[in-house]
Amino acid sequence: MLNFANDFSKAEALFKQEKFAQAKLIFEKIIKEQPTNYKAIEYLGDIAGHFKKWDEALTYYEKLKKSDAKNANYHFKFGGVLGMKARDGSRFAALGLLDDVEKAFLTAITLDPKHVDARWALVEFYLQVPGILGGSEKKAQKYADELRAISPVDGYLARGYIQEYFGRYLKAEPEYKKAFEIGQSQTTYQKLYNLYKNKLSQSKKAAALKLSFEK
After folding, report:
1. Rounded-to-integer distance, Cα 215 and Cα 208, Å
2. Which architecture, in CATH terms, is 152-215?
3. Which of 57, 110, 163, 207 could share a disulfide with 49, CB 3.0–4.6 Å?
4. Exposed, middle or buried by CB within 10 Å (0-12, 13-18, 19+), for 180?
């Protein structure tokens, strides 16, 4: 018999150290003895996703959704992996998955109105999907604005990302600047720095920003 508490802690520590193959072996042993250990199942789904084994990950996340249909994060993870499967598969196969990807993310934000990651996923989804299949800048902007109400930094980053995606770099600048002013994080700095250096070719602004951030 496994000592479940100790083995789970060991597997979790290995996962956090990114020793995914070793963690997987222990989590698999745990769910053989405890088929309803949903946290172990979730970790196995995450590990499968890390190794781009989309179908395997979907099997785990499907189990989680059935175990708790009101868990927003389960729907978000399911939608994320389904989206990756659509991206990596044939164009024809992807067409049959897009509706389910969108539905999973929309379900996540319905269940958790403050789910930040699911809104980011929707922003990306509506930008990447062709208009004829449901893609829309207007829809992407809607969820970016919702993000701004929930998490201002994420909202401004998302708004800047939309502008940058369409090559409107001057319009992206004030959005990224606002995100940096609020967040003062590595992520917000990097977005603004890259915009100055690589998109706007404003090396002086990039250098000044770098100096300021490093201080």
Report:
1. 11
2. Alpha Horseshoe (1.25)
3. 57
4. buried
